[in-house]
Amino acid sequence: MNWMAQHWLALVLLASYTGALLYNAYLGSQASRGIAGYYVGNREMSGVVVGISFFATFASTNTYIGHAGKAYDYGFAWFTLAILLVLFSWISWRWIGPPLRRLASQWDALTLPDFLGSRYITDSATTTRHPLLQASGIVIVFASLLYLLAIFKGAGHLFQMFLNIPYEAGVGVTLVIVVLYTSVGGFVSVVRTDVLQGVLMLLGSVVIFYFVTQAAGGITSIRALQAIPEKQFLFELNGGIPFAVLLGVSLSGSLKLLSDPRQLSRFYALKDDAAVRRGKWIATLGLAIVLSCLFPVGIYTHLILPEVTDTDLIVPSLVSDPSVFPLWASDFLIIAILAAAMSSMDSVLLVAASTLYRNIVAPFSVSSRELLWTRAAVVGFSLVAALLALNPPGDIVEITIFSGSLYAVCFFPAVVFGLYWQRGSARAVLWSMAVGISTLIIW
Predict the structure, then answer these.
(1) Residue 82 confidence (pLDDT)
(2) What's the rounded Cα separation, in Å, for the pair 379 and 373?
(3) In the predicted model, is pLDDT for residue 125 greater than 60?
(4) CB–CB of 332/207 below 8 Å?
(5) Coil, helix or strand for 308?
(6) Buried b (16+ CB within 10 A) or exposed e, 163-182
């Protein structure tokens, strides 16, 4: 009872947040009676809504917990990733979004494999069972599983550190909430919820930056680090990691903004080119604000926490420390970081489940109840990811960057050349995927 009395704000916000998710699930279910409504919101979404959803979907617990912590190990060189992420977000909206929206609407493509099939497969009689659709679908399902696993890990740590809920129970709570509104409401529910979550994430990133810098001695306290010999690596290009390796990691993590199915699906849902132009600036600016607030956290942490062994625990440790954050701020950030997890998880779930059923199972099935089976796939897929998250194979950043890199090496050539080059074939795309996966594994 004493704990509940202290954290009443977190409980009120959590109840209000859950209520808003369920309400959006109801509204989404009304708009998702057909398969196009469930997958892409009937292609009637505005640029403002989709722009917020775009950056909210990308900035997950990976950003709040993983990337914010990695600067502790790699120093200012790690900001290379933040710069490239903002740049590639703008490039995606400027050069990928407009033609992809038009072609997806023209070909009635609902998933990325649908687009690839319409673009590269010439024999329409074999399109649904073509190896290109099967292979691209398997890549999306596998990469999505890795990404979900990482987000479940971040959410589990969130509940464990902030609310004293066991890690396994935290994963379970996250599973129930996200499955409920995603499976019921589909794309409309996901995007409407992302708007709420995007606002919470923006405010949360500013709150984290303000209180962490204050606890470190102010923004200018960075000069104190420069005077410490053992902290000099933070200011060197090759200090924490060889810059060539860091640049490769940054590029592979950023290129997925041009090829990640959950980001590209946002373009499918836009109603016209004017919506694309509006969404471009909202998405890019929102991502820039979040990253510019969170990436420096690891740097300032050197002045607050002298010894850190697991960088994934830096932000949870700081937020739960009353000497860094007042109680009201900690309670608010619990919900903001939970929103960051949900905003990515729902999109990954929807894309993976849609692709799993539509492009892998449905071509070999006689069932006509696509909407029902897609909802079932959302539930089943999330259960598998949650179970794997109980014993995750690595750090959040490593898992998510590998997942994003897999999207980049498999789909970047096919999507970009498919939009701007008239030639190409399904066989060439399959070979590019094989070469890309081999290169990624070797790297």
Answers:
(1) 94
(2) 10
(3) no
(4) yes
(5) coil
(6) bebebeebbbbbbebbbbbb
Question: What's the CA gap between 139 and 418, in Å, rounded?
Answer: 18
Least confident span in 49-53, 240-244, 380-384, 391-395 = 391-395
**Helix residue ranges, H only, 256-369:** 261-269, 273-294, 297-301, 314-319, 327-355
pLDDT beyond 90 at 148: no
- Mean pLDDT over each residue of the chain, to the nearest integer: 87
Return the ∠ at Cα 72 (arms to 166 and 325), rounded to 5°: 55
pLDDT value at 138 more than 90:
yes
Q: Which residue has the tokens 């699930």?
A: 25
Give the angle subtended at the CA of 242 by the CAs of 236 and 247, to the nearest 5°.
Answer: 100
Structure tokens at 414: 């096919």
Q: pLDDT category, 3, cuts 50, 70, 90?
A: low
For residues 11, 293, 156, 283, the Cα torsion angle rounded to the nearest 10 degrees is: 90
N-terminal to C-terminal alpha carbon distance within the chain: 52
In terms of Cα–Cα distance, which of 242, 205, 436, 172 is closest to 336?
Answer: 205
Q: Count CB atoms within 10 A of the CB of residue 442.
A: 6
3-state secondary structure of 270: strand
Whole-number Å distance between alpha carbons of 77 and 247 = 9
